[in-house]
User: Fold Alpha-1,6-mannosyl-glycoprotein 2-beta-N-acetylglucosaminyltransferase from Nyssa sinensis.
Amino acid sequence: MASNKKPRLKDGALRRFLSVVLITLLGVVLLIFLLRTNPDSNLDQYSTDDDQSSNFSNFGKLNLPKQNDFSIFLEKRNLLPPRNLDLFPKLAKDHITIVLYVHNRPQYLQVVANSLSQVVGISETLLIVSHDGYFEEMNKIVEGIRYCQVKQIFAPYSPHVFPKSFPGVSPTDCKDKDDPIKKHCKGNPDQYGNHRSPKIVSLKHHWWWMMNTVWDGLKETRRHMGHILFIEEDHFIFPNAYRNLQILTALKPKKCPDCYAANLAPSDVNSKGEGWDSLVAERMGNVGYAFNRTVWRKIHKKAREFCFFDDYNWDITMWATVYPSFGRPVYTLRGPRTSAVHFGKCGLHQGQGEKVSCIDHGVANIQVEEIDKAGNINSEWGVNVYKHQAGYQAGFRGWGGWGDERDHQLCVEFANMYHFKNMSSPS
Ligand SMILES: *[C@@H]1O[C@H](CO)[C@@H](O)[C@H](O)[C@H]1NC(C)=O
Ligand SMILES: *[C@@H]1O[C@H](CO)[C@@H](O)[C@H](O)[C@H]1NC(C)=O
Ligand SMILES: *[C@@H]1O[C@H](CO)[C@@H](O)[C@H](O)[C@H]1NC(C)=O
Assistant:
């Protein structure tokens, strides 16, 4: 070791060094002072915003969990450029970005990836695959995609990435219905008395992290002004999905000013649509939904509602708290025939093998009729509005599973994550 060879600073050099340190310190203090007092600074944009999220704005002091090496590795990997830039160097000007969020069902993902390969117009856009956890088999499928630009992102704070500590399980955590005082364990039970389960909370965390990251974080999408379509690892996408969605998003402002989004599938996941010669406006569905940045800003402002509602399902949280808080009915516009099918529930229940489903040898048993192969929405159609549909709404207390303050905090930090890093970036 060369530790005894450390050169000693000569007096003059020491003085010069100290004055540089002093000047730097003064500069930093002055900068902080200016940023805090200048009313035009972009930081203040968030604190004077009329939204409640300003309540937990904390001037860059993010309180995210301490990352392990793997988490840091994933965060860096998220900065890699999309794949297939050689094949598809340019995105179409008015493209609708597609975000596919996945966990670990490779057999399903393969079906979805194959269905996307048949989608007319897919080569015009960017597909982002957002992973909850890191699984080689899942990566292989995504790496095999050659029909459009593809970018993978990995939730760096996924419970699946933290084997020994929060957001994963730590040895001192309470389990099930443990009494924190008697057991000397950590955690807050939900409204039904149950403690957090990392596997269960990971879905809502992933969704919220992904939304924040796609809209406000990623270089590729944070300035995207059009719509973004969100699909899941068990959504079969019809060949006409992209073209239909382009028509729907174009028709939306005229035909349905109350519509916040466009959907590929009916909100009733068992329905394939009515087959009418008419558009349909109904409550937001959770299969193939697309909205724009204006709507995202509205959702982001309701971060507290989202993060503190005691239900581990992101979609039920949206229906029961976020949408009702907009103060107006929240409709989505769709065609009369579905362009996406949720196949994950066909017989697959927790604990059962992957085989008990609509999938045989990796091929989904989903019939695509000739009429669903090309765009089949007529711009001249009127709109049928479903009013007062049944379903989760304001007043529902939630299914629980989301009572731990650490989960609330992490969720809130995801909403702050990209709002303090780059002071000059637009909101
Ligand atoms: C701000 O946060 C505090 C503490 O978390 C809470 O008591 C208060 O109600 C919040 N205010 C608003 C306007 O949300
Ligand atoms: C986004 O969609 C909403 C709801 O359809 C609409 O009111 C708004 O004008 C759209 N924003 C942009 C920038 O197109
Ligand atoms: C911050 O945002 C500005 C403009 O919005 C951009 O030019 C700059 O590259 C961004 N800096 C970083 C570090 O992302």
About this structure: The radius of gyration is 24 Å. Residues 11-37 form the longest helix (27 residues).
